[in-house]
Amino acid sequence: MRKSANLLVVICFSVMALLLLLQVYWIINYYNSALKDFEKEVNLAFEDGIKKELSLRCDTIQHIIENKLLDTTAFTISARFDKKDQKYVYTVSANGNAKDKFSSSFSLADYSKALPKDKRDTSVRKQVASRLALLMREEDLEQHIIYYRTQKLGLFMDEQTKKYQFDTARLRPAFNIYLKERKIKVPYSFIVKKEDSTNNKGIAASARTKTYPIVTKAFSTYRYTDNQRYVRAMFKSPTSYILSRMGLMLFSSLAMIVIVSGCMFVILKSLFREKRLSAIKNDFISNITHEFKTPISTVSIAIEALSSDEVNQNEDKRKRYLTHAKNEIERLNLLVDQVLKMAIYHEGKSTLTKEKIAIDSMIKQLINIHKIASGKDISVEYLNKSGTDCLLADETQFQHAINNILDNAIKYSRDQPEIKINILRNHNDLIISIEDNGIGISEKEIPAVFDKFYRVSTGNRHLVKGYGLGLNYVKQIMQQHNGWYKIESKLAQGTTVILGWPI
């Protein structure tokens, strides 16, 4: 039994350790996978943010160029009809320099209108300026190149691109938009450098990378007026972000560990409880066997003696042997009766016959019986402060409960037992407290003293004879009366048993 129990404990703890290791392994793998996904997502968001920042700059410069082309003091827009293509071709030239114009005029594939004679009608000029500004955006700004279609227009565009060049202050709100779409709220910072590589995703370790361990790939800013030619985004550790996304997995893993641990705990607790009960039962069987053998042996000797003529002819001896036999048979009968009563209580077959009990007279009568039967010099202090001398309960069971406690108080006390019995009333309970000056019970054994067959001393030899049934009997009686019970004790200082009877 012990080897099997120890093996089961080892197996249970091994399974728990393996389960825990597997959970840790899965969580670490999931975390690493989530970290890679995080790096991928922030890189995609950063690329989108870079494009958005460029798009915003292009929008601004395109609008400025369009307005500049409509400025008649700066540029002139003219139109001529091409007979071959049967459409109007438009020319843009700088005012003040007739040669500063497109070397070849441009045409609009889906637009062909003559310039209105009314100078106030600017519809055609607006269409031409809008189309030309869009063309310059797509061919020049978005490709980071400036074509000098006219010297004046080229210089103006160069001036505007320097004025509205890359800026992290403009990049941040654009980047935040795409981070928000991905529900990423990890603090970050930008790092701009003169030299970097857009093909290299790594960056040299530094004190800054310790604070910001996640670094995106670099993008060119096409800003040549200073050292801000490449930009990266650097993120602080995303552990809290990843763990928040792992919430369900962590909760389910923890729940599974708790459930499995709880099941194993219940199994092991039941196993050790059964193991303890088995040891207690064996101890009980050993003790009760000894108790049965003693009276049986005494009766056998008495019967053998009575069968001889010498004893039969001696009236005193005959009566003495008969008295011994009778006492031992009554002792056996009492023991069998106790075991049977415990079985009846355990199966719930006992019935209550409640009646009014005169508490004072009943307890005093029980005290006197124990004083005579024990053969010890017993001192009993009895005090009833409850204000009542009657209790509605089963008289026989009440006697058994008080008898068992008094019996223990006397058996486990010294040569001169001192017992204090106090009766109090607390709300709807009549409280009977029985205190002795006995050997006491250790704190760790107190929770088990009301268990069936349990005895404080172990093994098959006890200084005080008993069967481990008394307090369990008291427990069953109190439960049947819907009352409560409690024990307080300290080694070498005595024990107090408290019974709460409903009234």
UniProtKB/TrEMBL annotation:
<dbReference type="GO" id="GO:0005886">
    <property type="term" value="C:plasma membrane"/>
</dbReference>
<dbReference type="GO" id="GO:0000155">
    <property type="term" value="F:phosphorelay sensor kinase activity"/>
</dbReference>
<feature type="domain" description="Histidine kinase">
    <location>
        <begin position="287"/>
        <end position="503"/>
    </location>
</feature>
<dbReference type="InterPro" id="IPR036097">
    <property type="entry name" value="HisK_dim/P_sf"/>
</dbReference>
<keyword id="KW-0418">Kinase</keyword>
<keyword id="KW-0472">Membrane</keyword>
<dbReference type="InterPro" id="IPR036890">
    <property type="entry name" value="HATPase_C_sf"/>
</dbReference>
<keyword id="KW-1133">Transmembrane helix</keyword>
<dbReference type="GO" id="GO:0016036">
    <property type="term" value="P:cellular response to phosphate starvation"/>
</dbReference>
<keyword id="KW-1003">Cell membrane</keyword>
<feature type="transmembrane region" description="Helical">
    <location>
        <begin position="7"/>
        <end position="28"/>
    </location>
</feature>
<feature type="transmembrane region" description="Helical">
    <location>
        <begin position="246"/>
        <end position="268"/>
    </location>
</feature>
<protein>
    <recommendedName>
        <fullName>histidine kinase</fullName>
        <ecNumber>2.7.13.3</ecNumber>
    </recommendedName>
</protein>
<dbReference type="GO" id="GO:0004721">
    <property type="term" value="F:phosphoprotein phosphatase activity"/>
</dbReference>
<dbReference type="InterPro" id="IPR003661">
    <property type="entry name" value="HisK_dim/P_dom"/>
</dbReference>
<dbReference type="Pfam" id="PF02518">
    <property type="entry name" value="HATPase_c"/>
</dbReference>
<keyword id="KW-0812">Transmembrane</keyword>
<dbReference type="InterPro" id="IPR004358">
    <property type="entry name" value="Sig_transdc_His_kin-like_C"/>
</dbReference>
<dbReference type="Pfam" id="PF00512">
    <property type="entry name" value="HisKA"/>
</dbReference>
<dbReference type="InterPro" id="IPR050351">
    <property type="entry name" value="BphY/WalK/GraS-like"/>
</dbReference>
<keyword id="KW-0597">Phosphoprotein</keyword>
<keyword id="KW-0808">Transferase</keyword>
<dbReference type="InterPro" id="IPR003594">
    <property type="entry name" value="HATPase_dom"/>
</dbReference>
<dbReference type="InterPro" id="IPR005467">
    <property type="entry name" value="His_kinase_dom"/>
</dbReference>
